[in-house]
Specification:
Layout lengths: L2 H7 L3 H5 L13 E5 L1 H6 E11 L5 H6 L3 E2 L4 E5 L2 E5 L2 E2 L18 E4 L2 H13 L3 E10 L2 E11 L2 H26 L1
Antiparallel strand pairs: 1-8, 2-7, 2-9, 3-6, 4-5, 5-7, 8-9
């Protein structure tokens, strides 16, 4: 067989759409749905852990549309399980009448390894740290919540962060002005 015939036989239309380094052709890569900007303002985030979320009904469809808010939410360890409290997932509006109407702010179980739950529990009890959801992302079509292990900021820490951000903005603005001249 000639080399061109072998190349023609191994061609697949699926290969055209496939991007290098991906496992699927559906186009669903990692996508950040929402971020908890308030968490970075109120806390120092020391470490993050990615956790799966137990969802029911059409909640994943609402998350894919970005209808989730985590600004007022927190994470709690309860009876050896991790719970996301206060996250609001709006009901899916394009669904048929067959979907059960759920409470948008109900607690949702987070899925992590048991030893990770123990580490988080010890960190919150001993060190006085807290657990906050930092961002929600879609990874291979599944919703994941990044849980941050956080230390609370004092008022002067917040003021210092705002001052640093303003100084950085003014430096960037001055650099742009200087580049125009």
């Amino acid at each position: 067989m000639s080399l061109t015939l072998i190349a023609a036989l191994s061609y697949s239309p699926r290969m055209v759409n496939k991007k290098p380094g991906t496992n699927s052709t559906s186009g669903e890569g990692d996508r950040v749905v929402t971020r908890n900007r308030r968490a970075y303002h109120d806390y120092f985030i020391d470490d993050t852990i990615e956790a799966g979320v137990v969802l029911t009904g059409s909640e994943i469809k609402s998350i894919r549309e970005g209808k989730i808010t985590i600004g007022e939410s927190y994470v709690r360890v309860d009876n050896g399980e991790l719970w996301l409290i206060g996250a609001n997932i709006s009901p899916y509006v394009h669904g048929h009448g067959g979907f059960v109407e759920l409470d948008p702010a109900r607690p949702r179980k987070l899925l992590v390894h048991r030893r990770q739950i123990e580490e988080l529990r010890e960190a919150t009890e001993r060190k006085g740290l807290t657990l906050v959801p930092v961002r929600v992302r879609l990874r291979r079509g599944r919703a994941k919540v990044e849980v941050g292990i956080a230390r609370g900021k004092k008022l002067y820490d917040k003021r210092q962060a705002v001052a640093e951000r303003d100084a950085k903005r003014s430096i960037e603005l001055a650099m742009k002005e200087r580049a125009r001249e």
